[in-house]
Amino acid sequence: MNPCFAIIDRNTLGSSKLRELLLKVFPGMEVFTYDTVDGFIRDSNRHFIHFFVSDLMLLSRTDEFEPLKGSTTVLSTSGTLVAGSGYHILDISASEKDIMTALKDLRENFRNGACYPDYARRKDGGEALLSSRERAVLRLLAQGMTSKEIAGELGISLPTATFHRNNICSKLGTRSIPRLTLQALLLGLVGADEI
Questions:
Q1: Is the pTM of this model over 0.85?
Q2: Counted domains in the chain
């Protein structure tokens, strides 16, 4: 199932424009729009990686979005929510240029946090960002192996295993094993039952 975005907003014109901008910033990503929270919930079998929800809908259904706080951007014009709320906030009354800048910033946050699938593929659809060997090393890292154990498992030297590990950390922007594990899960390199 492909990762996708959900826009939950009664403003269908605004949702349509936001969808258009998202597709420019996140080429190849699927974007689904909903005019009710219930409509979104009925379609929750999709693999949503981020949610864009109007401030009024959020306030009326905070219980639905509280667990998704880190993956939710609130579409706000009134400043109802402040930056310290834990939600990402997008001022939809801003200029299109400012909104595009905010979406590009969000894309960079995704890249640093393993939410956007171009960890697996470059934007142009070309060669994989991680080599097949790096993907194998990442899979073993996610299973809790040390560099020495990875070297033994793959039949490579310890310096080579360390080299691959450093490349992975550099490309994925983190040295945190939990974040690397999450990225391995998102990339489908390891199943939840393997961790």
A1: no
A2: 2
Beta bridge partners of 52: 7, 73
Residue 77, domain member (yes or no): yes
Contact in structure between 7 and 34 (CB atoms under 8 Å): yes
Token pair listed for 146 = 């040390």
Whether 164 and 133 have beta carbons less than 8 Å apart is answered as yes
Counting every residue, how long is the chain? 195
Q: Domain for residue 139, yes or no?
A: yes
HSE-CB for 116 with a 13 A CA cutoff: 24
Query: Which helix (H) or strand (E) segment is 118 a member of?
Result: none
Q: What is the pLDDT of residues 18-69, one digit of tens each?
A: 999 999 988 878 899 999 988 888 876 677 888 899 988 888 888 888 877 8
Task: Supply the range of the domain harboring residue 70.
Answer: 3-113
